[in-house]
Amino acid sequence: MISSSILTIFKYVTVAVAMMIMMMMIGYISSVDGFSSSSVPPPPPPISVPVWSFATTTTTTTIAATIESNTPCPPTTTTSMNIMTFCTPVSVSSPKLWALSFYDGTLTKDSFLGTRSTRNNSSDNDSNNDNNTNVSKNENNSNNNRINTGVLQLLTYNHAQLVKVLGKKSGRDINKSIACQEAGFPWWNNKMMNKKNTRESCDDDDNNNHNSNTNDCTQHQLLQNSCSNCIDFDLLPGCALYIQVEWQPSSSPLIDAGDHVVAICEVKRTGIWKQEDNKNGGIGGQVLWSDDDELLLNNNDEEEDIGNNTAMSFLRLRSDGLDESNALYSGQLREVGII
Ligand SMILES: *[C@@H]1O[C@H](CO)[C@@H](O)[C@H](O)[C@H]1NC(C)=O
Ligand SMILES: *[C@@H]1O[C@H](CO)[C@@H](O)[C@H](O)[C@H]1NC(C)=O
Ligand SMILES: *[C@@H]1O[C@H](CO)[C@@H](O)[C@H](O)[C@H]1NC(C)=O
Ligand SMILES: *[C@@H]1O[C@H](CO)[C@@H](O)[C@H](O)[C@H]1NC(C)=O
Ligand SMILES: *[C@@H]1O[C@H](CO)[C@@H](O)[C@H](O)[C@H]1NC(C)=O
Ligand SMILES: *[C@@H]1O[C@H](CO)[C@@H](O)[C@H](O)[C@H]1NC(C)=O
Ligand SMILES: *[C@@H]1O[C@H](CO)[C@@H](O)[C@H](O)[C@H]1NC(C)=O
Ligand SMILES: *[C@@H]1O[C@H](CO)[C@@H](O)[C@H](O)[C@H]1NC(C)=O
Questions:
Q1: DSSP letters along 187-212, please?
Q2: 171 C-alpha to center of ligand 7: Å?
Q3: In terms of CB atoms within 10 Å, which of 93, 129, 139, 276 comes out highest?
Q4: Range of the domain at 90
């Protein structure tokens, strides 16, 4: 009786001691861990997330253009495109909001948010380029009601190699449009569409460009104010999904995130790539937006090709969703050593 109870007690003591030793070890390990990382806790492990490229318009003044035209006014509008690492929906009902995180020092950030780079020593080397390229957009900071438009482009596996171009290089150093073209993805522009459809307010006809520079400037401003859905910049062809977002400085302040700045943007519409016959050696096709006239047109077409009906494509995408089978994920980039 006594001996068995002693045995039981002994067993408990043994277990207790073992547990204490284990707890000490765990405590030791975690205290070492805590010590080594007390100042900067390690980030969570990488999570496979969709890979987005963000496109927006950038208004720059080049010395060459200024000298050529002999007027201080004309800014040239080009496209700024970047990989966006941190980007996620934060609501799905109205308003549909997404959180977009812009890397400090990038041309895309400065263009979309109307900021000037705060880093004076970035690998972007932007501080040295101020002579050649002035980011003139939003120099008038009082103009807080301006709405900035950009397009999130969900890449596909075919675009994987573009990550090197769009993500690791600055538009200040290379011409990404040319680089993408060389990689087989010449940027697509909806100006052709606008011409075809003669959408009044959206139509910024190239032919007017040489008439009067001052007119051009005001015209561009009018364009931006009157037509919020207008996209006056290029897009990447063949993406799995396009999401047009807007950010209004006056309604949504920026969030400081260290080397990033977070903007809460509103989703305006979504688009898909409609593959068409290869015309000029590039990817043939066009972006169709969920609100495009073209959609309705196609709907009433005599051809009852339900399988290829764009509206149906939208519906199918809505029900099937997007995952690794039809969109590029960062885990896939990691597998092939691109990141
Ligand atoms: C660069 O930034 C640092 C820190 O913000 C600042 O102290 C320094 O004066 C800046 N240098 C120039 C040349 O702007
Ligand atoms: C500036 O860049 C140089 C060289 O890349 C680097 O050694 C230095 O630490 C940087 N300074 C700051 C303030 O970032
Ligand atoms: C930055 O630009 C300067 C002047 O244009 C150039 O001399 C320097 O090599 C560039 N640095 C990097 C890291 O590209
Ligand atoms: C920029 O312009 C200033 C003044 O005109 C000049 O001193 C400087 O060398 C120029 N920098 C570059 C990188 O061209
Ligand atoms: C760039 O902007 C600065 C400040 O607004 C101005 O002083 C400079 O002349 C501009 N440079 C060019 C090439 O337009
Ligand atoms: C800034 O914008 C306001 C309002 O649009 C305008 O009245 C003002 O003249 C602008 N200032 C400059 C320097 O462009
Ligand atoms: C890049 O090259 C394209 C095609 O040659 C041109 O239209 C565009 O203006 C260039 N972009 C910049 C920022 O120079
Ligand atoms: C749908 O369109 C694609 C590209 O335009 C074409 O390859 C495919 O054969 C079409 N499918 C049907 C069912 O017509």
A1: -B-THHHHHHHT-TTT---GGGGGT-
A2: 10
A3: 129
A4: 47-60+75-115+146-189+231-293+313-338
CATH number of the domain at 241, please.
2.30.110.10
What type of residue is 296? L
pLDDT values of the chain reduced to their tens digit, one per residue, 339 residues? 556 666 676 677 676 667 666 665 555 544 444 445 467 889 999 999 999 999 999 876 555 555 555 655 456 778 999 999 899 999 988 899 999 999 988 889 989 998 765 444 444 433 333 333 444 444 444 445 678 899 999 999 999 999 999 998 888 889 999 999 999 999 998 665 444 333 333 334 444 444 434 444 344 444 444 345 678 899 999 999 999 999 988 888 999 999 999 999 999 999 999 888 766 555 688 888 887 665 555 555 545 554 457 777 888 888 899 999 999 999 999 999 999
* Amino acid at residue number 212: S
221 lines ligand 6 (CB under 6 A): no
- Quick check: CB of 142 below 6 Å from ligand 6? yes
- Residue 213 belongs to some domain of the structure: no
In sequence order, the 6+-apart residues with CB closer than 8 A to the CB of 200 are none
Gap from CA of 276 to ligand 8 centroid (Å): 9
Counting the structural domains of the chain, the total is: 1
Most informative mutation of 283, 308, 316 for ligand 8 (most atoms within 8 A of CB):
308
Query: Which helix (H) or strand (E) is 100 found in, with range?
Result: strand 97-103
- Closest-CA residue, ligand 5 atom 2, reads 134
Q: What is the number of H-type helices and E-type strands within the chain?
A: 10, 10
